[in-house]
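S1.2 Input.
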Amino acid sequence: MQTWRNLLKKSISTVTDLPLELRPNQERINKVIKQYPMRINSYYLGLIREKNDPLWKQAVPDIREIQDQVCMPDPLGEEDLSPVPNLIHKYPDRVLFLVTSQCAMYCRFCTRKRKVGTSEMAITKKTIRAGLDYIRQTPQVRDVLVSGGDPLLLDDEILDWILSSLRSIPTVEIIRIGSRAPCTLPMRVTTRLVKILKKFHPLYINTHFNHPDEITPEASLACTRLADAGIPLGCQTVLLRGVNDHPETMQELMRKLLMIRVKPYYLFQADLTLGTDHFRTPIETGLKIMKSLIGYTSGLGVPTYAVDAPGGGGKIPLTPNYVQKLGDQLMFTNYCDQTCIYKNAKK
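S1.3 Output.
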């Protein structure tokens, strides 16, 4: 059995490495790769059924990435919210702590595609220590989201050091890890890694599945190991044109996530990230999908549909409009469009 490191070493990074039947126009795509690197490990490559399928679109570069004239490099204003390099302090009580620039696969829709996998994202022990010092000196920070890149791509010892350092800070109550490894390289979730992670409760992991075909026996095993270790798992799905922008696809994905003990957490409207405009859908598409979920599947399987406001404005929930009239009585439609009346409480 190949280890996760061997699978990662065999990752594809050039067009000519792709199987012929999955290969796009070489000359055009090489231009994209010069700006936005490609990495597809052999596990995820094996899940792609054919050219232009939903998984192919997430993994293989598209010439439209360098033709985008709508979006912006740093849509969430992260660079302006970084008191020290690789740490974003947007909300009062929590920070986003970037500890690696590497991922098991470079997703073509990535919010940080301007620098993930490139020299633009320089992370060293020195920068990590600077982040730890900032958190230690900022007592209002009680929640730290460890991200990158993908933190689970770090060596066990380095990850252990970072989490130990965070847990030693008295004001840090909650540690979260953002990782797509359970989806894109599930064999990274070894029993040794899980043994390390379970030392740092309360620890949460938000992972990232976008399509039902990504939920494989290997992914299920990875999530089972984490859940059995008492680590709550959430999923932050991104709404992507041509990948999951149909109600039936999203319904199936949400059901399958619950079966592997991953709680659907967010359904994100795609960010205005330069190079990703071809993935974006109208807001109406997301609202239609939410209406197809609410009332038609368990509430456990209904995520919060949200847009991350440009410029660092934070996450804004978006919900279908059920309210028809509000006064002494609330008049509303239910999930199947029946009109209902609820007597309001007096002010």
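S1.4 Remarks. The radius of gyration is 21 Å.
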